[in-house]
Specification:
Number of domains of chain A: 3
Helix content of chain A: 25-40%
Distance between the termini of chain B: 21 Å
CATH class of chain B: Mainly Alpha
Mean pLDDT of chain B: 90
Low-confidence stretches of chain A: none
Oligomer: heterodimer
Shape of chain B: globular
CATH class of the largest domain in chain A: Alpha Beta
Mean pLDDT of chain A: 86
CATH architecture of chain B: Orthogonal Bundle
Order of helices and strands of chain B: HHHHHHEEHHHHHHH
Strand order of the largest sheet of chain B: 1-2
Strand content of chain A: 15-25%
CATH topology of the largest domain in chain A: Rossmann fold
Largest sheet of chain B: 2 strands, antiparallel
Strand content of chain B: under 5%
Number of helices of chain B: 13
CATH topology of chain B: ABC transporter involved in vitamin B12 uptake, BtuC
Number of strands of chain B: 2
Radius of gyration of chain A: 25 Å
Number of strands of chain A: 22
Structural class of chain B: mainly alpha
Strand order of the largest sheet of chain A: 6-9-10-3-11-12
Chain lengths: 514, 318
């Protein structure tokens, strides 16, 4: 252990989370996790999606109350749990991935939202602007406290969130993947702000999937896996293979499944997209998707992957572009036309865009083929729907006590399987999967990979959008990379050489051009 | 299998409501010996038909996550037009009725058009047409009322068939048709899907605009029919007919367990809600409670029923 680390260990921790467990019904989201954070430290928290990072942070912020036995100590004193207001008063601030700013208010109004300085009971706008200005100055940024948040870039909005945290005298700031939607310049200025905060003695818990960021910033790294605590590494002990081993903890080759035969150029083209544009972000996107192929669409958030998928599916209007399905030109102006032509789409946000949460699993599965169940006078053939649901529940091993249970009662993985079942019922030729394993537990993930593999084996063409590179490499035959609304390039596996993660990242970030 | 999204959870609300209804009727029967008589109950059935027809269609509207505030004005407009078409334009009465109902139905269609084509929120769109249609009715009527309809016309609102008020037959038939459509057809399932998650419904390939257009048109038709029955029942035509009727209909639907956010609700629930309100109104007035007291009690019952069903529902799936 280096001297610096020893000095840090000797310092009194500002935050100790001890033996935190959290169960939701039968699901164990956290199991006996402990975490110690020192003042002025950047403590990175890593782990796969669903490992329990977000749940742990929600316990810290008071959004969830930990199960009995868990405690949170701030400056060595036990703090109230399960109370967001007390947690904030104790100096804990969380900056979530989805920013929670009111775009039509000014920076100063957002910074003091719900906590406005008052004089005689009336909001003191002068003081509000002045104090917000002071806090912003501490962060060394360029915009004014009077600027409207809607006029700021995403990176600047992030800084407003940090300013808001500072306005409540936060001493522990949690940042949940803060750089996901930032440009590289914005990321650099965020890192400068982070250094300033650390120098002021503020502890930062930094959740990230990006190794390079963690290397650059972290004083210590703690890893969670499958709802449990795995270990903590000091900066001196950081190395990539050790971190990956801690995070994954299992053999990846068995996790992903790629048994289907990768198509060669001779294999028939299922979907051919030419010159797709939407007049806003997407410009001139063209590609071919072969039968029985799993083609991944990679790229950073905001690069236009979902937008392209929605154009193909007819959910949005295109300004230019043509498509051929199995060699025949098709025009698709609505999701109905897409489904009728044989193109199905699994949305990235299953709760907002996909599921009918308070309808039954059976209804959810049959919704794409509702018209097929119509008998005379539009009467619905309920037995057909029940049969279909029972078959899907068995085929996809959807874990539920009944097909009549609400879709909202299922876990994320099973909800995703319900949506996949609906999609498969439409008997598609082309399937577009948008982040098919987002927010899905490890077991369901591997089942979904197996399903994708089976579909490819049956000759269905699959376009898979994914932000998780190991998933892209483990599942796809070929990778298209998007950047700024255009297709930046293609990564293929050559003889014996698997797909290279670095090649994808270079295309996605634009590093390959230099 | 019982029609509905989640039979267990839904029936629970309706069961609570039915028990509440029976309790209310029992109490009221003890309060006044004029309440629980065949004659009185049939008469109450006569009185609730207009709100009832509107409430049946309103169940569909609310189940899609929408609302239709213009129905009371459509009732008034249809009533006026029936009189004007017959007396001022000299059309035969059957033709006048058909014409007036057609205009009322078209009013509903216009609502649907505004909502689907121009993406105006239903609350705003129908608030605007509430004013528009009432204004039209008043403009056309010029504060004159039309009376002296032929006797056969009064059979609809004042006569009986087989000992049951004529319009109650119509209401019963409409309720059965509505229950079948909402519970047992693919269109009913589309209504629930739209109310449950409109984007998901679109992505599932359902025709959102077509369904909404049909639902608002049906709402206009139901209101128009109610307008004609109203005229026949009270023997006269005035432009202020049906004022505030939309709120009675919405109350019955919501009391019946339809979620104001859409996606949930049944016709049987609406029917029970309707009967409960009518029983309270009539029974309380017979028991000597003043009108304003009755309204307060109906408000209290509404809140209690929703609370009760929320509490019991928590034990269920959601």
């Amino acid at each position: 252990m280096s001297a610096a680390v020893q000095a840090q260990a000797a310092r009194r921790p500002v935050l100790e989370m001890r033996h935190i467990s959290k169960t939701f019904g039968a699901i164990r989201a956290l199991q006996d996790v402990s975490l110690t954070v020192h003042a002025g430290e950047l403590h990175a928290l890593m782990g796969e999606n669903g490992a329990g990072k977000s749940t742990l942070m929600k316990v810290l912020s008071g959004a969830y109350r930990p199960d009995a036995g868990g405690e949170i100590l701030i400056d060595g004193v036990p703090a109230a749990t399960g109370d967001p207001i007390k947690a904030r008063a104790a100096g804990i601030a969380v900056i979530y991935q989805e920013l929670s700013l009111a775009p039509n208010l000014t920076v100063a109004q957002n910074v003091f939202l719900g906590n406005e300085p008052r004089r005689l009971g009336i909001v003191d706008r002068e003081q509000c602007n002045r104090r917000a200005g002071e806090i912003i100055a501490r962060l060394g940024v360029s915009f004014s406290a009077r600027a409207l948040v809607s006029s700021l870039s995403l990176g600047e909005r992030q800084l407003v969130e940090i300013a808001r945290a500072l306005s409540t005298n936060a001493r522990i700031i949690v940042m949940d993947e803060p750089t996901t939607s930032l440009t590289s310049r914005e990321t650099d200025s965020l890192f400068e702000v982070i250094a300033t905060l650390k120098a002021q003695g503020i502890a930062i818990i930094y959740i990230s999937h990006r190794m390079e960021e963690v290397y650059q910033l972290a004083d210590r790294v703690s890893v969670l896996r499958d709802s449990g605590y795995v270990g903590t590494l000091a900066r001196a002990d950081l190395n990539a293979s050790r971190l990956v081993a801690m995070m994954v903890g299992r053999d990846l080759s068995a996790f992903y499944k790629k048994d289907h035969r990768a198509p060669d150029s001779a294999r028939a083209v299922a979907l051919s997209v030419r010159g797709m544009s939407d007049g806003r972000l997407l410009t001139n996107c063209s590609f071919d998707l072969h039968k029985g192929e799993v083609l991944a669409l990679a790229g950073l958030v905001g690069s236009g992957r979902t937008e392209l998928a929605r154009l193909i599916f007819g959910a949005d209007r295109r300004s230019a572009g043509t498509m051929e399905l199995e060699g025949k030109p098709v025009t698709i102006g609505s999701p109905r036309e897409a489904l009728d032509a044989g193109i199905a789409y699994l949305t990235e946000d299953r709760k907002e865009l996909g599921l009918f949460l308070d309808m039954s699993i059976s209804d959810n599965i049959s919704m794409g083929v509702l018209a097929r169940d119509a008998r005379a006078g539009g009467l619905r053939d309920f037995t057909a729907a029940e049969r279909r649901a029972a078959k899907a529940i068995a085929d996809l091993s959807i874990r539920t006590r009944s097909a009549q249970a609400n879709a909202g009662s299922l876990s994320g993985g099973n909800q995703q399987k319900v949506l996949l079942a609906r999609l498969l019922e439409t008997e598609p030729k082309v399937v577009i999967l948008d982040e098919p394993t987002r927010g899905v537990d490890v077991g369901a993930k591997s089942e979904i990979y197996r399903l994708i593999d089976n579909l490819a084996n049956k000759g269905i063409a699959i376009l898979m959008i994914s932000s998780e590179l190991p998933e892209v490499i483990g599942v796809a035959d070929r990778v298209l990379v998007m950047r700024d609304g255009a297709i930046a390039g293609e990564v293929t596996a050559s003889e014996g050489e698997p797909l290279r993660q670095e090649a994808i990242m270079e295309l996605a970030t634009g590093a390959a051009q230099k | 299998m019982v029609a509905g999204i989640n039979p267990r959870a839904l029936l629970r609300h309706e069961t609570i409501l039915a028990i509440l209804g029976i309790g209310v009727v029992a109490v009221l029967a003890f309060q006044s010996d004029r309440f629980f008589t065949v004659e009185n109950l049939l008469n109450q059935g006569r009185l609730m038909t207009e709100v009832g027809l509107v409430a049946l269609a309103m169940t569909f509207v609310i189940a899609t996550g929408g609302i239709d505030l213009s129905v009371g004005s459509i009732v008034g407009l249809t009533a006026i037009l029936t009189g004007v078409f017959w007396q001022n334009l000299g059309l035969p009465l059957p033709l006048a009725i058909v014409g007036a109902v057609a205009v009322g139905t078209f009013g509903g269609f216009v609502n649907g058009l505004i909502i689907t084509r121009f993406k105006v929120p239903p609350l705003i769109a129908t608030l605007a047409t509430l004013a528009l249609y009432r204004g039209l009715a008043e403009g056309i009527s010029q504060a004159r009322s039309v009376r002296g309809y032929p006797d056969w016309f009064y059979v609809l609102g004042q006569g009986s068939v087989g000992g049951i008020p004529t319009q109650l037959w119509i209401l019963a038939a409409a309720a059965i048709v509505a229950a079948v459509i909402l519970g047992l057809t693919i269109w009913g399932r589309t209504v629930y899907a739209i109310g449950s998650n409109e984007v998901a419904a679109r992505f599932s390939g359902l025709s959102i605009d077509g369904c909404k257009l049909a639902v608002y048109t049906a709402s206009g038709f139901a209101a128009a029919l109610a307008g004609v029955i109203f005229v026949s029942r009270v023997s006269t035509t005035r432009s202020d007919m049906g004022t505030g009727l939309e709120l009675d209909a919405i109350t019955a639907v919501v009391l019946g367990g339809t979620s104001i956010f859409g996606g949930r609700g049944t016709i049987i629930g609406t029917a029970i809600g309707l009967c409960l309100i009518q029983a309270l109104k009539n029974g309380l007035s017979l028991a000597g409670v003043k009108g304003d007291g009755t309204i307060m009690l109906i408000g209290a019952v509404l809140i209690l029923a929703i609370l009760a069903s929320n509490i019991f529902d928590r034990g269920g799936n959601r």
